[in-house]
Amino acid sequence: MIPPSISPSVRDPLDDAPRLECGVFGIFDAPGAAALTALGLHALQHRGQEACGIAAFDGQRFHTERHLGHVADAFSGDDLTRRLPGSSAIGHTRYSTAGGSFLRNGQPMFADLKSGGIAIAHNGNLTNFLALREELVSAGAIFQSTSDSEVILHLVARSRKEKIVEKFIDALSQVEGGYALVALTNKKLIGVRDPLGIRPLVLGDLGGKAVFASETRALDMIGARFVRDVEHGEMIVVSDSGVETLRPFPAARARPCVFEYVYFAMPDSVVNGRSVYEVRKRLGQRLASESHVDVDVVVPVPDSGVPAALGYAQASGVPYEMGIIRNHYMGRTFIQPSQGAREHGVRMKLSPNKAVLAGKRVMLIDDSIVRGTNSVRVVRMVREAGAREVHLRSASPQIKWPDFYGIDMPDRADLLAATRTLPEMAHLLEVDSLGFLSVDGLYWAMGAGPRDPDCPQFTDHYFTGDYPTRLLDRERAQGLDSHAAQPQLSFLEDA
Fold it and tell me: Please, what CATH class does the domain formed by 4-254 belong to?
């Protein structure tokens, strides 16, 4: 069993959306690095809204601040560069995936080593975190947090390698799972992506200064130029000597997370060379060809359902209308203390546009359906606004399996599609019809052709059960051995 002290944070049972992962940002040798990092984190706020932090180096000392809450609240004001002086900095926005929502789990995490200080910011989740933590504690390590990211710091500290980059490589060679990391030492900025490229990371340039970020929109925010994606299994080391590229890990076939395109990344970002906005429109176009019925109006569930609904409307020829209006000046509904308050919170967050909905056959387009709790509330709201029929379509396939690489999804028993047929789900969601995009349709929208079951191009286990790495902690927790029949695991090496 996972000890209670390091179990994931408790989710509200009516919080239907999968929580975003985390966002990371780093910049080297640029005046006002902390202020630039704060701007970059603001552009990545959607990736984590529970905590944020910045670590800066002024040439002699590291300065670190971590706060619960939003970037704009934590890192605003004219005194930011005084509080966090230095020309190099890294930053992090966080949702709790491993560990709880406590400040001690905030990032960047910092440690003083014999060779100097090191700060790290991590997006993703280690699937052998508990096993490594147990080994480290048995060897005398003292942990200050319950975050899997601290394991990496301990592994770096205990490495017998001489140089800091070698220590970092030694540490990462022992971890499993999905990660994108930025690290700052007294001489270097390091960006690295896991061997499968599950989590995203890009390299940018700001007037000759190197920048790392989870998404390209963070580069846009500070006026930096996009250079390229950090490749899967690649480590980029930035120093006064320039930019060095290393390939320290065994070659593996890239399998980036497809859920970045479905839900996580913002539409104005480019992830792994693909425009998120264009992919989402193509999701809607394919959805219209796969499961269209006669309706009068196409309505997105805002905001993440908007591009797919546009694509659906264009492909089907049905008018697109904003039948649901989102209030952007409202906090998240899942923090409300009672179900009644949460129901009112949903009404404050989403409002029906009766002029569009009354008397119409409505096609609702959402990005995904997880538990279905939010979907049924939206359906009821649309019916109460006078809709004659309500049809619901998901611009992604049925989510049947949980995630272990940095997405906080419910357990399989709580996933709507895991144990129910399509008619059963339609009945529970109170819709006239229900449809999901096919897995091949998702791959088509990505420009990848049909999914090859022997060689999948993406990390897509939430739809297929095909996990790209072993899940050591899960296997140990459930008493499974490494050859367990489910979930299905695959290890794909380059030809």
Answer: alpha beta
Question: Is 277-444 in CATH node 3.40.50.2020?
Answer: yes
**Residue 450: how many other CB atoms lie within 10 Å:** 11
**CA-based diameter of the chain, in Å?**
72
Q: Which residue has the tokens 């979907």?
A: 375
Domain residue ranges in the chain: 4-254, 277-444
Q: pLDDT tens-digit profile of 145-175? A: 888 889 999 999 999 999 999 999 999 999 9
Q: 437: buried, middle or exposed (CB in 10 Å: 19+, 13-18, 0-12)?
A: buried
Note if 22 is an active site residue. Answer: yes
* pLDDT tens-place string over residues 34-73: 999 999 999 999 999 889 999 999 999 999 999 999 999 9
Q: Which conformational region is residue 398 in: left (phi greater than 0), alpha (psi within -120 to 50 degrees), or beta? A: beta
Q: Is the pLDDT of residue 478 over 90?
A: no
The answer to whether 324 touches 301, Cβ cutoff 8 Å, is: yes
Which among 245, 222, 226 has a CA at the least distance from the CA of 235? 245
CA distances from 42 to 49, 54, 75, 217 (A): 10, 12, 9, 10
Which pLDDT belongs to residue 287?
98
CB 33 within 8 A of CB 87: yes
Q: Output the pTM of the full model.
A: 0.89
